[in-house]
């Protein structure tokens, strides 16, 4: 939520999304009213009101969001714990920031930007999968196997998402059967590993 505030995502816009059904780019939006009373119709970024004489609370919200977003780690935490949290945070940033429905990238192509986002997500999942394989952070091999399966599932899901975004032939097969099979396989393996761990 804090990241969405920093990039001022569509949910925070005080006007309906002018890009949704636009026939031109940038959209041709009529004025909201007299220019002495209202902001420009496209000047809706980082503001909580379109009226010039009303207080804009966006700066306060942005400062609070920036404070919340700052990562902090306790002393004594293992390296892997920090890496794991960084992986989650980087994924969140990529999804929230590289999006045509926020004030950073609203003027970018809504067809190319999702491809860039999915490529970055795939590269991140590959990197963290390799980190899991190299670090092997848990003393119990069952926990390492479970974590390895989880990372592999993230990797396969990112690959499927990229295939869907690229609109390759037969993408529906990947978007349904392959994706659901991947999730089901993860659940099965985790249950099996948990059962084995309990038996030990």
From TrEMBL:
Keyword Membrane: yes
Keyword line: Membrane, Transmembrane, Transmembrane helix
Top-rank taxon: Eukaryota
Residue ranges of the TM segments: 55-73, 79-98, 119-139, 159-180
This protein's name: Uncharacterized protein
